[in-house]
């Protein structure tokens, strides 16, 4: 009986070790797509690689419009992106305003999706030197030049993706693919609720709504 019990315990330990090893060796699936950064979380923006002391990690949060996927089965659309390599490679204003970029993403793991939009500082109370934060909201995002006329779904409805690599400038050789997202955008945005919030730097256009000064036709 003792021998049988010992055998079962040994088998259970071996199976556990095998599962942990397989988990450590497996890499999350990557998604490669072309699109544009249409907005960024303004409190986490770093135009240059920040000076880093200690082991802290600098991040940025973007709203990205993917026009075409090269891999995977996700439909084109808007995504909330958590970029965690700012300490290695920060994006300049010119880069973040590029009209077409090539991204590499992965799905969030564990609790990454819960903080995908980042945090924003709360107003400090008199005499309080401690900085307090709250979860970021849509009004904490600022449009890029390329995103001035985009209509986004509410922040809570945006799927979260993680960027472990900086985006690269896309080239024409990758084609248009996926039926042409530029043609699909009008249908995608139709009927979606938007949050009518004016964002600093958005040329007076409410966040989520096209800039009327640029016209609504097309």
Brief digest:
The protein has helices at 2-25, 93-96, 181-189, and strands spanning 30-41, 60-69, 77-83, 101-106, 119-121, 133-135, 141-143, 160-163, 168-169, 197-198, 206-207. By secondary structure, the chain is α+β, with helices and mostly antiparallel strands. The protein is globular, with a radius of gyration of 22 Å.
Account of the protein in words:
With 218 residues, the chain is α+β, with helices and mostly antiparallel strands. It has one domain (30-202). 17% of the residues lie in helices and 25% in strands. Strands 1, 2, 3, 4, 7, 8 and 9 form a 7-stranded mixed beta sheet that branches. The chain has a two-stranded antiparallel sheet with strand order 5-6. It is globular, with a radius of gyration of 22 Å.
Binned strand content: 15-25%
Low-confidence spans? 17-25, 174-218
Q: How does the major sheet shape up?
A: 7 strands, mixed
Mean pLDDT: 73
How do the SSEs run, as a string of H and E? HEEEHEEEEEEHEE
Outline: globular
Number of E-type strands? 11
Q: How many H/I helices?
A: 3
Task: Tell me the structural class.
Answer: alpha+beta
Amount of helix: 10-25%
Terminal Cα separation, in Å? 80 Å
Radius of gyration, CA atoms, in whole angstroms: 22 Å
How are the elements arranged and paired?
Elements: H1 2-25, E1 30-41, E2 60-69, E3 77-83, H2 93-96, E4 101-106, E5 119-121, E6 133-135, E7 141-143, E8 160-163, E9 168-169, H3 181-189, E10 197-198, E11 206-207
Parallel strand pairs: 3-8
Antiparallel strand pairs: 1-2, 1-4, 1-7, 2-3, 4-9, 5-6, 10-11
Attribute tags:
seven-stranded mixed sheet, 218 residues, alpha+beta, 11 strands, disordered C terminus, two-stranded antiparallel sheet
């Amino acid at each position: 009986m003792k021998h049988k019990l010992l055998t079962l315990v040994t088998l259970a330990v071996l199976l556990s070790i095998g599962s942990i090893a397989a988990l450590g060796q497996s890499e999350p699936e990557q998604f490669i797509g072309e699109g544009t950064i249409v907005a960024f979380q303004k409190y986490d923006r770093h135009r240059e690689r920040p000076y880093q002391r200690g082991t802290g990690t600098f991040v940025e949060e973007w709203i990205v419009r993917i026009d075409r996927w090269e891999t995977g089965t996700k439909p084109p659309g808007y995504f909330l992106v958590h970029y965690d390599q700012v300490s290695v490679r920060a994006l300049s204003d010119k880069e973040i305003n590029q009209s077409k970029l090539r991204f590499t993403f992965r799905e969030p793991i564990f609790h990454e999706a819960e903080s995908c939009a980042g945090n924003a500082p709360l107003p400090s109370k008199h005499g309080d030197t401690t900085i307090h934060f709250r979860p970021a909201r849509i009004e904490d995002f600022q449009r890029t030049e390329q995103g001035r006329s985009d209509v986004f779904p509410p922040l809570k409805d945006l799927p979260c993706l993680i960027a472990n690599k900086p985006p690269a400038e896309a080239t024409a050789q990758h084609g248009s693919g996926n039926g042409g997202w530029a043609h699909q955008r009008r249908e995608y945005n139709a009927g979606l609720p938007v949050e009518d919030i004016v964002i600093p730097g958005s040329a007076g256009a409410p966040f989520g709504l096209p800039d009327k000064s640029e016209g609504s036709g097309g």
